[in-house]
Amino acid sequence: MSSQIQRRELLRIGGLSICAAASCNTFGAPVATWKSNSDRSCIFIMLQGGLSQLDTWDPKPDAVPEIRGPFQHIQTATPGLNFGELLPKSAAISECLTVIRSMTHKFTKHIAGTYITLTGSNNQQDRDREAHGDDFPGPGAVLNYLAPKLTTAGGSQIQDTTGSGSVPRSVSVPNWLSIPGPSNRMPGQFAGFLGSIHDPFLVEGDPSSKEYRPLALSLPDGVDSRRMETRLTLTRQLDSAARLLESELNARYNHLRDSAYSMVVSGKIRKALDLGQEPDALRDRYGRNRFGQSLLLARRLVEAGVQFVSFNEFNQKWDTHGGLVGRYKQIVPEMDAAFAALVQDLADRGMLEQTLVVNTGEFGRTPQINNLNGRDHWPNVYSTVLAGGGLSGGTRYGKSDSRGAEVLAHPVSPADVLATMWHSLGISPTEELRDRLNRPRLLSEGRILTELS
Questions:
Q1: Which terminus has fewer CB within 10 Å in the chain: N or C?
Q2: Which sign does the torsion angle of CA 5, 9, 12, 16 carry?
Q3: What is the pLDDT of residues 301-322, one digit of tens each?
Q4: How far apart are CA 152 and CA 197, in angstroms?
């Protein structure tokens, strides 16, 4: 174990949170004006299925049992801020967290809720559907579109100044959000009206598996980076001679091909995807599971220069209409460990101020426990947790009523969270996007939550 890791562990054992001591506004004191920063990155954790606010971030210990639920509450490191008992590790680093307890929108279906969470768009029906070309684009696609060095073929990559290749601007792990249907594509995560050429790059697979080899990111025996680039040049020449596909499909193909080549050739990205380079103790802290190792991978990708990494939970994992106790005892501790480890790890490395972490579901759950011992869909009020990205931390914003049923103070929409995210990343929410017919669209109709600074 390195001396740096030993020092971190010693500080942690001694009861000093590096997160609170060095990277957050520990005592809620006034901080400097919160500034946009185009060098910032974002890790967006999408707990698709709908996390119960009452059993996690916004417990109601004084409510009747059928509303309070089966879990006790615990005190966090922030005076007066309580979490559910299954979140002890997040409670320990609460001085780095901003807990929004007044999230609200009107959509009760998973896909409609996911769509507004990822795009901020209210322009939809409250129903389940697949993605289509007129959708509002997701954050990763928007960043690809706004990238200052886009090529005519749609290469949504930023330059790697180390000379080891280019780095994707946005990456999704470890899978797409999916739904049953012909295309299995959930709206909100793709490029929509910007054109699929700007879709994020997917690094697929379970990074906790011993067989994890994403994209087979290794060069063939006897082929070095220079020879690989020569092959790509030859492929481009052959393709330009063929011209068999329509322009957008051809550009999409070129984009995917060039991205795959770049990621193989770039030692920086191949190194980021090699979790074996991390100390066992750190991997254990994140959790040896899909969730934990995906967040560790997200940190490594951000460290390598990727600006936006989205973690997509698998197939409505948080949809708990019944058997909430057993299910939450399985999945909440995994999320708690991974999320807390990510925030602490970013703080340890001096990366937290430059990395915004968003942890959210598409809605909350009903205050009343149902007859299946679960909770149903509830968009009226729920919680979203932010960390880093220039925010002060150690704060809570907004308030739900005594039943966790309605917003009592300071309602926040998903569009507001996204506007705040764009501001953190140095992008104005009033930025104009253009669809494929060159029609203007406003990036966000939300407001920047300057109160969180």
A1: N
A2: negative
A3: 999 999 999 999 988 899 999 9
A4: 10
Burial class of residue 368, CB neighbours in 10 A (0-12, 13-18, 19+) = middle
Q: Are 299 and 335 in contact (CB under 8 A)?
A: no
| Distance set, CA 394 to CA 11, 21, 114, 120, 367 (Å) | 20, 12, 27, 26, 26
Residue burial 299-308, b: 16+ Cβ < 10 Å; e: rest: bbbbbbbbbb
The structure tokens 């995210």 sit at 421
Tokens of 245: 């596909």
Contact partners, residue 13, CB within 8 Å, separation at least 6: none
- At 242, give phi and psi (nearest 5°): -85, -55
Contact present, 43 and 303 (Cβ < 8 Å): no
What's at 92, amino acid-wise?
A: A
Find out whether 396 and 77 touch, Cβ atoms under 8 Å: no
Q: What is the pTM of this model?
A: 0.85
List, for the chain, all residue ranges whose pLDDT scores fall below the cut of 70.
Answer: 1-34, 148-165, 215-267
Residue appearing with tokens 């959790």: 287
Residues comprising the chain, all counted: 453
Structure tokens at 316: 């409505």
Is the backbone peptide bond immediately before 65 cis, with ω within 30 degrees of 0? no
Place of tokens 């080891």: 164
Distances (CA, A) of 312 to 173, 295, 345: 6, 10, 20
SS3 string, the chain, reads CCHHHHHHHHHHHCCCCHHHHHHCCCCCCCCCCCCCCCCCEEEEEECCCCCCCCCCCCCCCCCCHHHHCCCCEEECCCCCCEEECCCHHHHHCHHHEEEEEEECCCCCCHHHHHHHHHHCCCCCCCCCCCCCCCCCCCHHHHHHHHCCCCCCCCCCEEECCCCCCEEECEEEECCCCCCCCCCCCCCCCCCHHHCHHHCCEECCCCCCCCCCCHHHCCCCCCCCHHHHHHHHHHHHHHHHHHCCCCHHHHHHHHHHHHHHHHHHHCHHHHHHCCHHHCCHHHHHHHCCCHHHHHHHHHHHHHHHCCCEEEEECCCCCCCCCCCHHHHHHHHHHHHHHHHHHHHHHHHHCCCCCCEEEEEECCCEECCCCCCCCCCCEECCCEEEEEEECCCCCCEEECEECCCCCCEEECCECHHHHHHHHHHHCCCCCCCEEECCCCCEEECCCCCCCHHHC
| Contact of 166 with 262, CB cutoff 8 Å | yes
